Amino acid sequence: MTPAAATETKSVLLVNISTEKWPPRQRTYFGSLAVRSPEPGEPYAVTPIHACKAIMDLGDKRTHEFHVSAQEIAEDLARELNGDSGEGSFHGVFVAAGPQPTEAELADARRRLEEFQHRLVAAADLEWERTKNPMFITDLERRAARQLGLEKPWLYDPKPMAECPVCAEKIKPGVAVCRACGAILDREKAAQYGLVTTKRTRRDRPEAPSEADGAGKLPESEKL
Ligand SMILES: [Zn+2]
Q1: Contact 176, 221 (CB under 8 A)
Q2: What distance in angstroms lies between residue 9's CA and the mean position of ligand 1's atoms?
């Protein structure tokens, strides 16, 4: 093997300290790649990343072959895996500088992951304070609280949710009106609060938590 060829096959390690599982990454130059997650008891998992040859289509059946280094690929993957959850998002993936992750690199990743998890928990606390609605708490926030070993009221959903017969949205037991589609679920109760003749235009779906600020204006029937 020539020295040049040896450089081509050089690989780096993508290190992951979170137990999150990701679907395989797709790239035109390597196809599909599964990034490993640590098994229970393992502090981290490594995925070797190799350099690739990429082929650029220049049209007219002409192609240009170029080299993508292992470092470039690994950094691109780490950025993608870490960055999908908003500002400051970090999911415990980094590129090791050497042939093995060092204690300092691992400690730094653990610190960054914990920082991000604390931010997720703080956001969930705020959401819970405003809405008391477990539907507004994301899976990511629940996982963060569990991994930090925190007990939170929003980790559990004590009341079983019913389904709206009209739109199949999950609804709290005993509500007069479906908050998703506006269907009257309890006519008597709705009339009691003057809702039957009032046309509802409000939308308060879980996908739009920003509108939850209006929760204070809800009729009594929905606060139950
Ligand atoms: Zn509905």
Answers
A1: yes
A2: 57
